[in-house]
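Database export, one record per block. Field names are fixed; values are copied verbatim from the stored entry.
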Amino acid sequence: QVPLVESGGGLVQAGGSLRLSCAAPGRTFSRADMGWYRQTPGKEREFVASISVNGGSTDYTDSVKDRFTISRDNAKNTAYLQMNNLKPEDTAMYYCNAHVRIFNRDYWGQGTQVTVSS
């Protein structure tokens, strides 16, 4: 199992910002598309954003476009999710994902809680 370590979650008021970080071992990070997913109790985990291995391509779910930005620092083996103008409906456990295409394998972090109060 590849350890992905997330950080940056917390409690914030609506309209506020948070930045999530996900650190991965270099050997995995350098070969992985990185993504963020979120999950609330009783619901399936849903896709939030992703970034390709070289950072040249990003994708977002419609509900976070123009508010969230995914990025990666390949020198630090870390992916980020900058979340602005947060809304109560963004409240969820956020999970980092590393997808290694050549092995078609996915690795997950332990999750970091984001709570947005109204």
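Remark 1: The chain is about 5% helix and 50% strand.
Remark 2: The helical segments are 26-29.
End of record.
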